[in-house]
Amino acid sequence: MKKIALYIVIGLLPFSHVQAVDTEQLTQTSRAAVEALGGELKSTLQKSMKADGPVESISLCHKVAIPISNNVSDSQGLKISRTSLKYRNKNNKPDAWEESVLQKFEQRKASGEAADKIDFGEVSEVNGQKVFRYMKAIPTGDVCLKCHGGNIAEPVAAKLSTLYPDDMATGFNKGDIRGAFTVIQTINY
User: How far apart are CA 187 and CA 189, in angstroms?
Assistant: First the structure.
């Protein structure tokens, strides 16, 4: 029995340099980035909605959402953006991994889980690089319905049609999963 244990230990020696990935720390870092991006986007949109109304807010969101995402990505040292099964901006179209996770989010919500509590992260590979991928569902709130609901006012619908001719991001109800924040962190050994 001692010989078997010795052989196992010797057999594992070539792998002893591999460090364990701290997925809990990576999850916490991802959640902090989501909070930073979500907070900044929400604050910017709320101020614009209050000052200028939904039509002008669509233009503002169109101009600043990606730059805000890029700033948070740079400041946090990771890549963060938004995606959805029903995306508005073609640049936010989910990749295969994101689409799979979004479909699982929908299943979890259908099973009774609250949309604002749904998230998922795992170690994965992107372009041959080991990364940690994380997604956090974005629930549809009251303010979202002005531009993403099923009964959108005509001036808002016209502006959306102008800026996003292939828009799929409408018809949501309060509490639906509007989309998700998506984070990629490179894992360095």
Answer: 7
Reduced to 3 states (helix: H, G, I; strand: E, B; else coil), residue 10 is: helix
Q: Residues 7, 9, 12, 13: is their CA dihedral positive or negative?
A: negative
**pTM for the structure as a whole:** 0.87
Q: How many Cβ atoms sit within 10 Å of the Cβ of residue 87?
A: 18
Give residue-wise pLDDT tens across range 19-61: 578 999 999 999 999 999 999 999 999 999 999 999 999 999 9
For residues 43, 48, 51, 57, the Cα torsion angle rounded to the nearest 10 degrees is -160
Please tell me what DSSP assigns to residue 20.
Answer: P
| Rounded Cα gap, residues 122 and 134, in angstroms | 7
Contacts of 128 (CB under 8 A, 6+ apart): none
Is residue 82 packed enough to be buried (19+ CB in 10 Å), middle (13-18) or exposed (0-12)?
A: buried
CA dihedral 54, 56, 58, 59 (to 10 degrees): 180
Coil, helix or strand for 23? helix
Kind plus residue range of the DSSP H or E element containing 81: strand 79-83
